[in-house]
């Protein structure tokens, strides 16, 4: 046989080998292979579907209704609108975390470029993607990913001891955008040189100098004297030199509660450091300029809720306003008041049921800025014109219009907004729109629940029970969502994606309990129910003895591993190379590693040779 024919046969065989599909479980997003034809038969259902090359990569990444996605883009094949509380990632799904690139079941696994995953997942506190360009992490070399702070700065930068930021200013404890806000103890800040300099000479107890010639701002509890030095507090008989604070005052003076100055007036909060006179009285007292004393403003008289007075009240305490009658009222634009309550409003203002004065006629409730938020019965608030308008047909039971003043934006209490026709309907009766505040654009299901209600994602209905998908009354749930288990004894939904305690471990991965609420009756996702009423995972077990799992398979994908738990079989863990995890309250606490690895600080590290 000639060499040319042999070469042709070799190329033919090589082509067959290269074109023949090759499938491997755990790779190319494949969960299960058919080794007869080497094709994948089960892919990661949230993202991929099988292709002809033995993997999962040719199908759409984004699928509506999966991975918490409500709307996909046609061209870019990514999610552009997620469910409430989720953000689109770059892998076609949605994550609890903004700026996430890859997520799994709503939890972020990898952040976008220039972002780092920080924090720790405990109950409902999830990880976040923090920008490496943020002021907290800018110029950082080593990052504490648990607390999201810098541990070590890049060369040429110093770690601030106060806020863990990197600054070019040595001995700085707090900085902002390259400017030192506070130096460490024993140093002051020279703004002109942008340096923290050791205190000495004229700059002892100095905090900030502008030009470096004289101190401009002294440390707390020191004042700038006429000779340009920072001196200790006046009228002080005993000073704590280490803390720089006064501990005792001379006769007829006492320590101010706010700043450790010595002041001469009883019930004073802040005093003048030079004269010792009171500037600000403690709560329930006002400063009378006539004699410089602090007097009670709790009594039922003209100085109630007053802060400063000189024969008549000049200023009121926080959240009270000085009226036209020189008395303090909890209502702005009040003309006359009694005991802090407004009797009449100023001209062109109207008093509502909330005792506030609004410049909108027929208004009954106002917000903190005294702008109207609800009108009288049969009136709605036009946000555009800023007036209360008598209800028209399209605005019946409406509370507030949109910014154009053309359609209803929010309904009154006891009604929900149907976005299909922007009309208000009753939401008090148990049913599809019970407890609803706003429907979807087609008016078919509830999109937003009113305050105090929980939204079920499966049936798009509202319930007073957390985690409930469907309920026939306000006290008992009929069906919980996938993250909760229905406790038949109480009718409540309990968390099933973690173990709260040993006594209620049967909640874990359970869908419904028995009537007594003492064991699981139906498991989620087709998991098997054992004799103890627990939901056991067998799909990832590769070695059994007497129907009990002894060994779990390795990674399902590049992020998730499986460890063996005596109660629940093979459970998911984020600790790589972990063999066994026996802590029932935390499956991410490894107790034994695979061969060739050893347990160090709850991580499986490769053994040193």
List the helices and strands and how they pair.
Elements: H1 3-19, E1 30-34, E2 39-43, E3 69-72, E4 79-82, E5 87-88, E6 94-95, E7 100-104, E8 107-111, E9 115-118, E10 128-131, E11 140-144, E12 149-153, E13 158-159, E14 166-167, E15 172-176, E16 179-183, E17 187-190, E18 195-198, E19 206-209, E20 217-218, E21 222-224, E22 230-232, E23 236-240, E24 245-249, E25 254-255, E26 262-263, E27 268-271, E28 278-281, E29 285-288, E30 293-296, E31 306-310, E32 312-316, E33 321-322, E34 328-329, E35 334-338, E36 341-345, E37 350-351, E38 357-358, E39 363-366, E40 372-375, E41 379-382, E42 387-390, E43 398-401, E44 408-411, E45 415-418, E46 423-426, E47 436-439, E48 446-449, E49 454-455, E50 462-463, E51 468-471, E52 477-480, E53 484-487, E54 492-495, E55 510-513, E56 520-523, E57 528-529, E58 535-536, E59 541-545, E60 548-552, E61 561-565, E62 569-573, E63 578-580, E64 592-593, E65 597-600, E66 603-606
Parallel strand pairs: 17-19, 29-31
Antiparallel strand pairs: 1-2, 3-4, 5-6, 7-8, 9-10, 11-12, 13-14, 15-16, 17-18, 19-20, 21-22, 23-24, 25-26, 27-28, 29-30, 31-32, 33-34, 35-36, 37-38, 39-40, 41-42, 43-44, 45-46, 47-48, 49-50, 51-52, 53-54, 55-56, 57-58, 59-60, 61-62, 63-64, 65-66
């Amino acid at each position: 046989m000639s060499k040319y024919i042999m070469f042709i046969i070799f190329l033919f065989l090589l082509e067959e080998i290269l074109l023949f599909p090759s499938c491997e479980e755990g790779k190319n997003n494949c969960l299960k292979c058919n080794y007869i034809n080497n094709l994948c038969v089960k892919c990661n259902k949230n993202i991929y579907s099988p292709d002809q090359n033995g993997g999962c990569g040719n199908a759409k990444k984004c699928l509506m209704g999966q991975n918490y996605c409500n709307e996909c883009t046609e061209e870019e094949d990514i999610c552009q609108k997620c469910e409430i509380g989720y953000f689109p990632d770059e892998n076609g799904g949605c994550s609890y975390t903004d700026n996430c690139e890859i997520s799994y079941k709503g939890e972020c696994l990898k952040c976008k470029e220039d972002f780092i995953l920080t924090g720790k997942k405990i109950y409902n506190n999830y990880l976040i993607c923090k920008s490496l360009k943020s002021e907290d992490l800018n110029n950082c070399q080593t990052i504490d990913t648990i607390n999201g702070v810098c541990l070590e700065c890049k060369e040429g930068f110093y770690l601030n001891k106060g806020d863990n930021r990197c600054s070019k200013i040595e001995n700085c404890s707090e900085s902002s955008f390259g400017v030192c806000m506070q130096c460490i103890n024993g140093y002051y800040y020279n703004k002109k040189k942008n340096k923290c300099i050791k205190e000495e000479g004229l700059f002892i107890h100095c905090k900030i100098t502008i030009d470096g010639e004289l101190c401009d701002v002294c440390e707390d509890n020191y004042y700038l004297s006429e000779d340009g030095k920072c001196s200790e507090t006046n009228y002080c008989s005993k000073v704590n030199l280490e803390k720089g604070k006064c501990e005792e005052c001379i006769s007829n003076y006492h320590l101010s509660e706010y700043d450790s100055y010595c002041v001469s007036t009883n019930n004073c909060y802040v005093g003048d450091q030079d004269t010792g006179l009171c500037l600000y009285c403690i709560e329930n007292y006002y400063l009378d300029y006539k004699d410089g004393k602090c007097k009670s403003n709790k009594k039922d008289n003209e100085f109630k809720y007053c802060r400063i007075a000189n024969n008549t009240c000049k200023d009121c305490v926080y959240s009270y306003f000085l009226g036209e009658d020189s008395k303090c009222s909890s209502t702005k634009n009040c003309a006359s008041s009694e005991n802090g309550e407004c009797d009449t409003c100023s001209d062109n203002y109207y008093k509502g049921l909330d005792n506030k004065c609004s410049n909108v006629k027929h208004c009954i409730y106002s917000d903190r800025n005294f702008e109207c938020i609800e009108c009288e019965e049969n009136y709605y608030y036009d946000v555009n014109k800023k007036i209360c308008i008598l209800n028209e047909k399209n605005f019946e039971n409406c509370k507030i219009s949109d910014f154009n003043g053309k359609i209803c934006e929010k309904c009154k209490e006891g009604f929900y907004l149907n976005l299909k026709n922007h009309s208000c309907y009753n939401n008090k009766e148990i049913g599809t729109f019970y407890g609803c505040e706003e429907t979807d654009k087609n008016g078919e299901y509830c999109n937003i629940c009113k305050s105090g209600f929980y939204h079920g994602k499966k049936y798009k209905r509202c319930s007073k029970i957390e985690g409930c998908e469907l309920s026939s009354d306000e006290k008992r749930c009929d069906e919980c969502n996938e993250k909760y288990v229905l406790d038949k004894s109480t009718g409540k939904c309990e968390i099933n994606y973690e173990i709260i305690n040993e006594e209620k471990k049967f909640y874990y991965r359970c869908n419904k309990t028995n009537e007594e609420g003492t064991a699981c009756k139906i498991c989620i996702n087709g998991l098997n129910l054992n004799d103890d009423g627990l939901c056991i995972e067998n799909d990832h077990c590769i070695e059994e003895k007497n129907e009990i799992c002894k060994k779990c398979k390795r990674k399902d994908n590049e992020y998730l591993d499986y460890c063996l738990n005596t109660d629940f079989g093979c459970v998911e863990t984020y600790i790589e190379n972990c063999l066994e995890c026996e802590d029932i309250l935390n499956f991410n606490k490894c107790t034994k590693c695979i061969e060739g690895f050893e347990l160090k600080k709850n991580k499986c590290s490769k053994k040193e040779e």
